[in-house]
């Protein structure tokens, strides 16, 4: 048998030799193909633009609240600094547009390090009405007694460390320094509670503008979409250094007496940022899966194309990120001891926004119905818990408490689990990278809690009366959700994704009722919306080719 093989091979060589000699000037023995260098695909400078969601938690704390009364001679008569401190949330969400510039060095076949700087713009402002005198701990002030926060530009300078799951898919961690421009404003106006008659108090407005330093940490996923184009999904958490805001306002109590109010607030701000970006990498870049970078001789047989990635099939996965909630509370009517509450005397609406970590599960089915198009359906459930508290109050905006300095009382809204059932439509930028839109139905569970602490512990409730200390109402709202993201094959049957979704759950109506005394009935609405940003991994059932 061995002899036969040698004879056949020798004959084939002799028969083919004339044709080879006629077509090629090279020797019969072709030189071996030189392999491409392994560590050149990600090294270089890059410049990109991104867009996404910026969600901010801003906690205001009263560090000092001084009330002084001066006589005609200017000497102080009374000076009071409250012992108990108040806190209030001034949270917000906004879109963010930005750009980034960096350099990567691929120092090993699967590892790279880099440095990156970015600059973004939000320009969003949030206001909590009726809490301009936070040290007093009441929400009965009219519009104008407000706390507000505005953010404009932000920037960061960071290091990156990445691991190439495939030659065209990178997962990375990043961290470094950050800066943001913040403007904190508190305004004051005072009803008859400050003086026996209205009209003596002069409204005031104090703004503290500052550029705050901070520290940022996060990570993300990048995918080669074309030889020099890289798409990304990134999440970062940033904590900024706190600052103080203070101001003094005077109002005449009589021709002989002058009073001053001097609140001092500490502002702590944390930010969660999710962005989708597209960057151009300068210089030579590694090929995408559907390109053919290997040099071949003219007469050499073309290398067999890799089998296509299969996007058809069932899949299931895990994801993690954050959910930013926008909950607008509006008091529609209220009665106290049977008499209607005059809602015009105070703010009747306030936002109770918040941010919470989100962990979830998703499962679905995709069908690749054309070379570059994928359609599917997906269901998801999110497990997150976030509570936003208003301390010193027990009712919704505009329904004043029974007295001042009720720091033991509390009004809170808590968002819990959420779910969705959605359709997906995606376009394959490369055989292993999908950009998609998604939309469908959504569900959100939340509850509202009113806490009336015992009078001896700083609350409005007495042990002598039957008014319950804690009242909770809950609901699961149905709404719609829309969004999109980027998904890529990482290895074999494993896929990675970055996704953003917006959900609107409409308005729900609720009632809080206390037996008193006095008996209080509070009717209010909650308009609920959420922004969810997630990074996730999926396992697709069925065979999936390597990129």
Write the layout of secondary structure elements.
Layout: H1 2-23, E1 44-70, E2 76-80, E3 87-89, E4 92-108, E5 111-128, E6 147-166, E7 169-188, E8 204-226, E9 229-246, E10 249-254, E11 257-281, E12 313-336, E13 339-340, E14 349-351, E15 354-368, E16 373-383, E17 386-391, E18 410-430, E19 433-451, E20 470-491, E21 494-514, E22 520-540
Characteristics of this structure?
single chain; 547 residues; mainly beta; Porin; 2 domains; 22 strands; flat
Short summary:
The chain has 547 residues and is mostly beta strands.
CATH topology of the largest domain: the name is: Porin
Briefly, what CATH class of the largest domain? Mainly Beta
Q: What percent of the residues sit in helical stretches (DSSP H or I)?
A: under 10%
Tell me what the CATH architecture of the largest domain is.
Beta Barrel
Number of domains: 2
Q: Largest sheet at a glance? A: 8 strands, antiparallel, barrel
Q: Shape, please? A: flat
Rg from C-alpha positions? 32 Å
Which consecutive residue ranges, at least 5 long each, have pLDDT under 50?
1-39, 192-199, 289-305
Descriptive notes:
The protein is mainly β and 547 residues long. It folds into two domains: 45-287, Beta Barrel (Porin); 306-547, Beta Barrel (Porin), CATH 2.40.160. The protein is 4% helix and 63% strand. The chain is built from one helix and 22 strands. It has one helix at 2-23, and strands at 44-70, 76-80, 87-89, 92-108, 111-128, 147-166, 169-188, 204-226, 229-246, 249-254, 257-281, 313-336, 339-340, 349-351, 354-368, 373-383, 386-391, 410-430, 433-451, 470-491, 494-514, 520-540. The strands form two sheets. The chain has an eight-stranded antiparallel barrel with strand order 1-4-5-6-7-8-9-11. It has an eight-stranded antiparallel barrel with strand order 12-15-16-18-19-20-21-22. A hairpin with a 5-residue loop joins strand 21 and strand 22. It is flat. The chain starts with a helix and ends in a 7-residue tail after the last strand. Mean pLDDT is 80; it is low at 1-39, 192-199 and 289-305.
């Amino acid at each position: 048998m061995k002899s036969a093989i040698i004879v056949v091979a020798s004959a084939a060589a002799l028969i083919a030799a004339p044709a080879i000699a006629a077509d090629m000037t090279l020797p019969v023995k072709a030189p071996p193909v030189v392999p491409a260098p392994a560590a050149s695909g990600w090294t270089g400078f890059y410049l990109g633009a991104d867009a996404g969601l910026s969600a901010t938690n801003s906690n205001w704390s009263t560090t000092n609240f001084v009330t002084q009364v001066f006589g005609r001679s200017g000497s102080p008569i009374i000076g009071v600094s409250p012992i108990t401190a108040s806190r209030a949330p001034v949270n917000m969400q906004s879109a963010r547009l930005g750009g980034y510039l960096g350099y990567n060095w691929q120092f090993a076949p699967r590892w790279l390090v880099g440095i990156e700087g970015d600059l973004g713009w939000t320009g969003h402002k949030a206001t909590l009405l009726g809490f301009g005198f936070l040290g007093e701990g009441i929400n009965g002030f009219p519009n104008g007694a407000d706390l507000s926060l505005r953010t404009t530009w932000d920037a960061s300078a960071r290091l990156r460390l990445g691991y190439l799951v495939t030659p065209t898919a990178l997962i990375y961690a990043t961290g470094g320094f950050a800066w943001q421009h913040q403007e904190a404003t508190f305004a004051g106006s005072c009803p008859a509670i400050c003086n026996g008659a209205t009209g003596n108090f002069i409204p005031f407005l104090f703004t503290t503008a500052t550029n705050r330093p901070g520290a940022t940490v996060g990570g993300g996923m990048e995918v080669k979409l074309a030889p020099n184009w890289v798409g990304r999904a990134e999440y970062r958490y940033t904590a900024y250094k706190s600052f103080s805001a203070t101001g003094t306002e005077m109002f005449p109590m009589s021709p002989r007496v002058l009073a001053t109010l001097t609140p001092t607030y500490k502002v702590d701000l944390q930010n969660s940022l999710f962005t989708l970006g597209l960057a151009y990498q300068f210089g030579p870049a590694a090929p995408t899966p559907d390109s053919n970078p290997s040099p071949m001789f003219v007469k050499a047989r073309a290398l067999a194309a890799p089998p296509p990635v299969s996007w058809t099939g069932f899949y299931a996965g895990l994801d993690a990120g954050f959910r930013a909630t926008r909950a607008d509370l509006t008091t529609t009517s209220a009665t106290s001891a049977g008499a209607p509450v005059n809602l015009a005397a105070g703010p009747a609406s306030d936002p109770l926004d918040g941010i919470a970590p989100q962990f979830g599960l998703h499962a679905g089915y995709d069908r690749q119905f054309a070379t570059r198009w994928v359609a599917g359906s997906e269901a998801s459930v999110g497990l997150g818990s976030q509570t936003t508290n208003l301390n010193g109050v027990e009712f919704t905006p505009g329904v004043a408490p029974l007295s001042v300095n009720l720091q033991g009382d509390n009004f809170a809204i808590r968002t819990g689990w959420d779910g969705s059932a959605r359709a997906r439509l995606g376009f394959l930028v490369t055989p292993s990278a999908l950009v998609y839109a998604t939309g469908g139905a959504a569900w959100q569970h939340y509850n509202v809690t009113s806490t009336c602490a015992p009078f001896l512990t700083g609350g409005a409730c007495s042990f002598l009366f039957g008014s319950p200390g804690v009242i909770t109402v809950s609901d699961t709202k149905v709404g719609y959700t829309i969004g999109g993201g980027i998904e890529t094959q990482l290895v074999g049957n494993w896929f990675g994704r970055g996704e953003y979704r917006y959900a609107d759950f409409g308005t729900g109506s609720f009632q809080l009722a206390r037996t008193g005394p006095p008996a209080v009935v509070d009717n209010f609405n909650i308009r609920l919306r959420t922004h969810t940003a997630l990074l996730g991994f999926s396992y697709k059932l069925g065979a999936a080719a390597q990129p």
